[in-house]
Amino acid sequence: MATGNAVDFEWFRYTDEGGGHWAVKTDKDWGALAAAGFSAFNAADPVFPKTGRYRVRRVQLQDPVSTRITRRPIGAAAATVGVAGATVDVVVKGATGVVTLTSQGIIGERKPKTGVIASKAEPITH
């Protein structure tokens, strides 16, 4: 892991809760962590939409020393960092070195529901 003030971004593969694959851009150091659950970028995957109707799954992390909270995306529902109480060493912008954060659990993804809308049959009147 690199240390310093610059945050470099890179594309990674995100697996949604339905098993579909998407391309997401996240912090290069965070995405490279095995605990974050991302896999290698695949150019064939569509980009995950950035709108109010869509939100990737995230993990809430807290620094036990400063009590600051941060939320970061996780690439798979089974990512080890998503387990409440798990710890992970991460690079924090402006910090010198790595900081150990404790997971407080997963914040689920949000996607609009898709499917067929079943309409009621019209009542028969004579």
- The overall pLDDT average reads 86
Structural class: mainly beta
How far apart the termini lie comes to 76 Å
State the helix count: 1
Give unreliable regions as ranges. none
Overall radius of gyration: 19 Å
SSE string: EEHEEEE
Largest sheet: 4 strands, antiparallel
Q: Quick summary of this structure?
A:
With 126 residues, this protein is mainly β. It contains one helix and six strands. Strand 1 (9-15) and strand 2 form a beta hairpin.
Secondary-structure blueprint of this entry?
Layout: E1 9-15, E2 21-27, H1 28-32, E3 58-62, E4 69-73, E5 87-91, E6 98-107
Antiparallel strand pairs: 1-2, 3-4, 3-6, 5-6
Walkthrough of the structure:
This protein is mainly beta and 126 residues long. The protein has one domain (9-107). It is built from one helix and six strands. The chain has one helix spanning 28-32; strands spanning 9-15, 21-27, 58-62, 69-73, 87-91, 98-107. Strands 4-3-6-5 form a four-stranded antiparallel sheet, with no helix packed on it. A two-stranded antiparallel ribbon has the order 1-2. The termini are far apart. The model has no long low-confidence stretch (mean pLDDT 86).
